[in-house]
Amino acid sequence: MTAGSVPTMLAYNGLALDRAPDRRADTDWITARRAHPATRVIAFWHDKFLPDAHPTATADAVFLGLDGDTAVFAADLPDPTGEPHDVRALVSSLAPAEAATLAYARGILHWHRNQRHCGACGGPTDARDGGHTRQCRTCGKLLFPRIEPAVIALVTWQERCLLARHRGAAPTAWSTLAGFVEVGENLETAVHREVHEEAGVRLADLRYEASQAWPFPAGLMIGYRAQAAGPRIAVDHRELDDARWFTRDEVWSLLATHQRTDSIEQFLVGTWLAEE
Ligand SMILES: [Zn+2]
Asked: How far does residue 141's CA lie from ligand 1's centre (Å)?
């Protein structure tokens, strides 16, 4: 974030494709779309985007959706063609809809590469529904794309916000607190636990702000604004080097020395700064 600007749109959230979930199970329709000359195939290799590769849509290409009448597929190539690009490194040069499409493609192709065998019986699995499920050949178990939810919270106390420096991070790398949701937790419980676990801060109030697709490789970030019950901080040094309260002026100074990022953290902090 540059001084004076507050982001209003979260990177990777602007998908413009029609996912057409009602068409995915229609094998004939998917096959015809794969063979159609206007079909777009987005190529990846080991989680990296290959803008110079233009493969045909083979049987394992994943149907992402429709761009108007044009079907868009994603294909994982065994070898790179041209220069492979990291999607996050490209994001500032992409239109929001294209960034969202590439993140979506990266996430679903990553899932396929890691679900070739059944977790229950070890049998081989095959893609179904245009690549939106897989099924075990041996026991029939259905596998669905995995999404791993994580909560992230901007915690405030009066006119200050809580930022932490993770162990091993650069001296100026202050960030909001975040963590994965654990089994059996709801989102709010996860925020209370993370903030207390890492910074020893109890929360008096919690409010949902926004969420962000984060398929790097399988995340979904759920962002909250939280009010601390008091200013006391007790840092857990297993995870953090330090945590403290920052005024808005101090946060602006930090931002001036930082590169723009693509994460929801910037949105949460930016929204708070704009309330000045
Ligand atoms: Zn199985």
From this structure: 5
In the structure encoding, which two tokens stand for residue 139, read together? 């026991």
In terms of Cα–Cα distance, which of 36, 97, 40, 266 is closest to 174?
266
pLDDT digit string, tens, across residues 151-172: 999 999 999 999 999 998 888 8
Q: 27-114 and 148-273 share one CATH topology?
A: yes
Please name the CATH architecture into which domain 27-114 falls: Alpha-Beta Complex (3.90)
Is the domain defined by 148-273 classed in CATH 3.90.79.10?
yes
The two tokens of residue 90 are 């490209």
Among the residue ranges 125-129, 165-169, 258-262, the one predicted with the least confidence is: 258-262
What is the Å distance from ligand 1's center to 126 Cα?
11
Which residues are 92's β-sheet partners?
none
DSSP assignment string, 192-231 = HHHHHHHH---EEEEEEEEEEEETTTTEEEEEEEEEESSS
Domain boundaries defined on the chain: 27-114, 148-273
